[in-house]
Task: structure prediction
Amino acid sequence: MPLEYIRISEQAKDQLIKLKRITGLQHWNVLCRWAFCVSLAEKHPPTPTKIPTDSSVEMTWKVFAGAQNELYWELLRHRCRTFGLSDSEDELVLQFKLHLHRGIAHLAAERQLRTIADMLEKVTQPSSTNR
Result:
């Protein structure tokens, strides 16, 4: 697995701080897992964009993914194939960063999100925007 360290943008850090405050979830990696999964559930691939890694938030892949690291990597590989993208290591790393940041932005923009229960409802209920 080529992705050893995950570093996010300053904007994503600010969004994660907001999410920590409103949901009570205190661990970056847990919020990032939720965000990654929210983005994977979207109908379309994330828009390719340059993402600065200018914040102080950094974690290893193992901290991000925990015991399910192979599952998260294979979900990403599957989505890349579904979108007609390469599943080369470089493409997977790029797509991971794009999915992570898109998911963080989606969660932070959700005005109805106030609790962990709200987050669970968001990821388990189909919506017209991602189906």
